[in-house]
Each structure stands twice: as structure tokens, then as C-alpha cells.
């Protein structure tokens, strides 16, 4: 890119230059480059230029080498020179470097991190000096002789390292990441080598022969020039010179003839290879589908060697055809499915559809069946400011949807689309109200909408339906088998492993793979040779001894919970690197770990990875409880002979409760504020206690409720509102009516949610098996709309994860991306208000005993000024970086990516109030908050307060209490709040005591303004605006909630927060009391809350 820009610039100045200019021609040598290729340097121009930069650089080279291409090339190229391969983790690496310097051996240091070891500095800076006429160098306390044949290479496996400027002063940093062209060439050579090994071997021999011929030709030419330059007098009289020239001419002619024959043979080979290019081109696209999966989860790491081994195996197993076109199609299909099976085995459930969709989309983009800008629109909803055109259908079309529709006009296929919304509103509203996969669109758009463009329509109008629509899209574009991942199977993973390949369980809450692994070891007759240890403090040496012993005698070693021993992980990596092919063939290393970015990448790339998650769905959870110990054990099931009916019914209630609270996790914050890892051990201890208390007590309900709700399950619950919820839910499943009422049901959604009449074990199994697969949210205590909220969250999670896995959309130089970034920065800067004048605020609103709100206002202004300064500074820095006035730092790159993906930059988040909004909405919200304070400053204390506009809401609430306490001379710690919901939206005057607040939204319910009570949500309406609420300070001793619902207020819909330095939650605000004509338990199970802002 730099060379191209430079060449164009030189031409524009009128400086004579070749029409086609490339570095290889000017600085390279055909002979040298061909030798590099023979030794493994990829043949693409990018790799060739990398080699030339290394060869011509005055500093030693540090290769960014995630696929280990540079390291492999250097190892082959320098093998004959006694290459020393080292790592900084080797204890004696400096001694070996000193020896290599003295003997003139080349050194390769692998696995370089972002910091270079200080002892290397004299070597990196080439600080040699003469001593007694000999060149020497000082390394630490040692002064050693420097051999001029010494060479140093450094390689890093980091995919995107961020080096400090001082590192660039020490070494020449070369990006050796594999290019698409280079990978295609490698994969083409492999497929031809498998299909026609003799032909590929002939090509490789010809390549070597051509290199030898070129070298011989060059030597001949040099010999001729040398003869001509050394001959004195008339060359025609110099017989020796004439003889040399004649021999050189004959040799040159022979070499030229050999080259001609080689070219003819090579052309015929290339004609054959050309037929397989479709396979290598397709397969290289697949590699780039998996290369960025680590952005989604740090455990999703796959090496190029692993990919190539799978590629070779797939070619060998694929069905044979004599017709090459059919064979190629078969190879493509076989490898795509093999890769899908192997990758999905190592992915969590939530990421399996992600991979299928990414696979499908990247293949379609490569085949020109899908435009990349349309794909990115589906993932992001477009990037740009808010539209100035008003929403034409505000009664049903969301403002977010309208904004995205207007952005769609910028895509050529959707040009003018926004104009059709009002014109064809009836058709679009029908699609919105009664969505089906084959929804109708206006006639003018019918022929323009491809299957992918229909997905864009679904994103815009009904984003909650995207998961099912994407599933069908993959099924139709590829095959149904690409949406049916293989089940968990240790045996298949084991078959893919060998003694130097670790097997890695990626853990998820609620599942322990150890029981399955122990059972598998028994099946392989390895029980006596199976050893395991749970890693933790001080366990490293024990684990190391187990590995060393196991590698010698052929045992299986399992290291559990590697995520708890991150400091020991580099040692584990080194131990495994030192294992060689003398390792016992039966040895296996099993590792278990939750996702961790500290887990060694080398082990992840070498290893076979597996995930196993708890069953999903009410039916599967119930069935698992009943077919597992202890419930399936007849002795246990019949363990309450005097109270069998009670035990069996309460046992089913407990199993239903266990399934219910796990399924609520799928509803996000509506299910639980915090996602808890309820698991089988909670259920096991609870059923044991259930049996014990039924056998020992006639009335076990109070004890069971406490132990199960507060200890077994409740012991995991850290949020007070979640603790209230779990106790409330449990009361529906463990109570006397479950035993006495034969018609008792856990949900009114259907008879299947009741209990069987008979108590036989098989009757309950049949009852569970007869349940439907899908269950309405009401079964879990939630409103029907919770299903829409859940589906929206899942859709956003999927699209966000695909965007991460797609790669860095901010990559590139000065082009459309930079222009767009500059426009975004300018647009935001132009919108932002000025800083508050804090001195003027102190003068106009001084600190007074009777008015605490003055202090609240000034402190809020200071907080917003701090945030505004950060926003302005980062935007200006971004503009300077685009113009090249300052260096593009890692922080600036991250910032630019956030802007392009319409996310709030992390730098802003660190000094901001909580917000889940996208970037345009966040900026508008920020401006609205500052305008609220500006109006307060200009017109005085408002009659009512926009509670959502405060940076630190607790300060405002404390100010309300403080005003009341000082007015009536009451200690502030004796006060609390009462609440009254007013049937108005705007107040003209402030109350005598307390404060009016507005700007809240109901989540999980709505406010019935006619009756003044909580009511159920309307269909598809997820939130409702609350009217003004009067918060009234009163003595805590007079506080009486009565039958009102105690409703928490949160700043965002995420609900969970952290405890800040002030002792307050970063998200939770306070509880309010709301009137209701239903039991409070109804709204508790609905997870009803008030929110200060929507996402």
C-alpha cells in the first residue's frame, strides 16, 4: 500500500519511473527469492516483500507470525547453518545466545511477547566494539567475541500485538500474518500433492531445478564478466579466455534449453493445478472464518497446522470421482462439513449458530453472492447520526427501526426504501403484527429482495425473529446439517488426539465433565492409569511430577480448573513444549478450564477442545433430574414409605423449581439480575434433605423453604432482589397445596404443568416426555412479552459476536473508512455543548444550610464537565491521528473501532454514567442531560426533576432527605421515602416537602393510569412511560408499604451493578412503592422494575 501510494506520488511529480514498480525487482534477486520459496516462504508478493525487508534491514527482524510461517521458513533456511531455536522461558537462553554469537550460529527466538528482554538490548542495538583488533560485544558482565556470521531472528505468535515505540527503535517489525493469496497457494499445493503426488513432486523438483539453473546461469554470466575484465590486451589472442567464453556459451545455451523445457512442463502442471484452484480458494475462505473466533472467546484458538491436517484428512476421506469437477465439488462439501463438525464441538451452544452463519456469509461474499456492505449493515444497523426525518408510523414503528430504515437508503439495493414505509404502511404493519418467514413485501421490492436482504428487513422491523430467520437462512443456503451440531462425545475427541495433543474441556456453569471422563477412562480400561488434580496454590509441582511420570509410563493426567492457576500456565506450556516423540503413546493430558485469556495459546491451538453444557429447556432439565442419581435409584425413590405420596409430589415440585430457575437465565435481567451457576449439586443436596425432613417431620415446609431457598440455592444468590425472587418462586413448588390439592398446577399455561395422579416413577417419566418442547414465558412466572425481550437480547448477542468474529472493520489506511471516521468525529464535536462555568454556578447557587440542591447541581456540573473533556479530547486526538499529526496508538485504534461499530468507546465508559445505548443515542442522551442542568442553572430549581438525567442519583436523593431533615430538625438517618404516583406528566410547581420526579419506564409491567395500579403489558409493548412520582420523606417508623409492590429502580435494563467507592451500586437507585390489585408475588416473579433509561 505504501509503495503504491509512493509510486503514484512520484509519477504525479513527473519524476521518470517504471510503469510497474515493485520492491522484489529492485531490491531482490530471482535466485535468492526462489531459494526462499523452496525453503517455505509463501510465494505471494506480500511475503516476498517481507523477505526483502528482512534481508535489507540494518536491524534484526521481529516477525508478527501468528501462523508460524516465518518461523518455519527460517528453520528450513538456516537448518544447514546450525540454527539455535530458543524461547525467553528457557532458563539458559542467554548462555546459548552467547555461544551462538561466538560460533556464528543463527538464533531464532520464538514466542516473543509485547516486551523484549532487557539483557538483549546490546545485541539488538548492535553495540559491538573492537578489543585487541577483534570485534566483541558486552552481554551483561561477559565480553565475548562477535562472529560476523551470527544472525538473530525473533517471532511472535500474537495476532495483534501493541509494541511501544522503543521496540520499533530496537528491531524491524514485519507483519508476517498469512495472506489469502499465500494460503491459497499452500492449500493448492497440498490438494494436488494428495490427488497427484507424482505431479506435485515433479513441480517441486522443477522449482528446485529452475533455482539451480538460474544460479548456474548467474555464475556463468559472472564468469564471463570476470574473464573479460581480467584479460589484458587483445582478447582474440588470449586462447584461455576464448576457451572459457566458448565453454560458458555452451553451458549458457544448455541452461537456457533446460529452462525452456522446464517452463513447458510447468505449464502443463499448472493447467492441471488450475482445475483444483476452486478447492483451495474455498478452503482459504474457511480458514479466515475461524482465525478471528478468538475475538468472541479466548479459548477459540485454532492453528494453521491443525487446519491443514484436517484439510488433508478430509481430502483423503472424501468420495472419489474420475471427473475432476465432481471431485472438486465433493472435496469442498466434505471439508466444509468436517470443519463445521470439528469447530462446533469446541464452541458453546450460543456460538454454534454464530459459526454456521459466519461460514455461510463469508462463503457467499467470496462467491459474489452477497455484498459486504449489506452484511455489515445486518450486523450493525448502519453507522451514522440520527435521522432528521420524522417517523411516519410512530404508533407501531420503533424510532430505532426508522433510523435504520433511513440508513438503508445509502445501500444501492435499498435506494429510496424509506419512502415506501408511509406509502405501503399497511403491508409493513401486517409484517410487523403477524410475522411469518415468508412475509409479503410491496411488489416493487419483491424481485430485489434476496434471501439475505430479507434478513435485513427482519432486523429492521422484527429483530426478535432474527435467530429463527438466520437458522432458516443457513439451512436453505447450505444444508440442514449445518444447523445440527454434533452432540458431546468424548470418544470422538479422544480418537482425534494423540500423545502430544492435549484434550481440553472448556467449562460452563452447571456441568462438571469429570464423571463422564472417569466413566470413559473405565471404558478404555485406563481407570488404574488415570490421575487427576485440581489446580490451585502450591499444586503446580505436584501436577508437573504427574505429567512427567505419565509421559514415561503412559498414564492419563487430568489437570482440573486451569483458570485458577493462571500464574502456572506458562510453566505448563513449557512442560508440554518439552515433551517429544519419545513420550509414551498412551499418555494423554486432559485439561479443564473456564474461558480465560491467560490460558496458553499454544496448548489451545494444538489441543482438541470440547464443550459440554447443561441441558436447555424445561423438559430436558426435568428429564435429566429424573434419570440421574439419586432420583433414578429405586431405593431412594421409595425412601419415604410412610409419606410416599408427599415425597413424590414434592420431589417433582423441587425438580420443576430446579428447571424453572435455570430456564429463567435465558431471559437475561428479567430472569435474574445476575446469572447464577445453579447446578446438579444444589438439586442433589436439596432432594436428600427433602427425604430426610419428610421422614423426620410431619410439617417440613418451613425448614425446607429455608434450607433450599436461603442456603442450597440461595447461598449462590448475591443480589437482594434476586434473593427475594428465589424465595418467592420456591413457595410455588414447596407448599402444602402441592401435596393436598390433586389439581395443583405450577402454571395455568396448560395441564402438562400439573402433577400426575399416580406416583410411580415411570408415570413421571412419561409425564415429562409428553411435555411440549417449547414453553411460554408464563410457565416461569414471566409475561409473554418477556419472550420478545429474550429473543431481542439473543439476536443482539449473535450479531455482536459475528461482528467480533468477522475481523477488524477499522483496518485500512486513508480511505473511505478514515473519511467516515473524520465525519463522525466532526459531527459529534459540533453537537456537543460548552463546558459548565463552575465558578458562576458556585456564585448563583452557593452552599446553604436550607437548600442542599445547590450542592447537588454544582457537583453534577463538575461530573459532566469531566466526561465532556474526555469526549472532546479523544475525538480531537482521533482527528489528528487520521491526519497523521499524531501516532495511531493502540488506544486510538480501539477508539476508532468503537466509533465505526457505533459503540460507546471504553475511554468514555470509564468516566461516564451507566448506559447501554449505542453511540448516536448515547451522544443525544448526554446532550439532553447537560441541557437539563443548563436549564436548571438558567431558570432556577425546577418544579420536578428528570431523575434519569442525574450522573449520581444518590446525591439527589440524599439532598431531598437533607432538605426535609433540616426543615423539621430530624436526624437524616431516621428518614426514609414514601411514594405517590400522580396521574400527570408535567408539574408546574414544586411540592412543599419531597420532590417530583419523572423520566422512568416500567419493565415487565405497565402503569394503568385510569386505575392507578400496576397492570399487565400490552402485546409487543415492552416498556411503558411512568407518570410523575412524588417522593415523600417520612420517619422510618411511620413507613408502611401495605399491599403495595416494592419495586426497584435501576439506571439501565442490565440491572446488575458494581459496588462503587461511595458504597452505592453503580446501577441500583432505590425502591418505590406501587399500588397493585394482585399479590406482590405476581410482580416479583414478573421481575417488574422501573428503569431510568432504555437501551
TrEMBL record:
Span of domain Dynein heavy chain AAA lid: 649-786
Domain Dynein heavy chain ATP-binding dynein motor region: from-to ranges: 34-255
Classification via Gene3D superfamilies: 1.10.8.1220, 1.20.1270.280, 3.10.490.20, 6.10.140.1060, P-loop containing nucleotide triphosphate hydrolases, Region D6 of dynein motor
GO CC term, one of those recorded: dynein complex
Domain Dynein heavy chain region D6 P-loop stretches: 501-611
Cell compartment(s), UniProt: Cytoplasm, Cytoskeleton, Cilium axoneme
UniProt GO BP: microtubule-based movement
Domain annotation Dynein heavy chain C-terminal: ranges: 793-1092
Protein family according to the UniProt entry: Belongs to the dynein heavy chain family.
Keyword Cytoplasm assigned: yes
Main location: cytoplasm
Alphabetically ordered keywords of this record: ATP-binding, Cell projection, Cilium, Coiled coil, Cytoplasm, Cytoskeleton, Dynein, Microtubule, Motor protein, Nucleotide-binding
Protein name: Uncharacterized protein
GO MF: ATP binding; dynein intermediate chain binding; dynein light intermediate chain binding; minus-end-directed microtubule motor activity
InterPro entries: AAA_9, AAA_lid_11, AAA_lid_11_sf, DHC, Dynein_C, Dynein_C_barrel, Dynein_heavy_D6_P-loop, P-loop_NTPase
Entry keyword GTP-binding: no
Source species of the chain: Diabrotica balteata (Banded cucumber beetle)
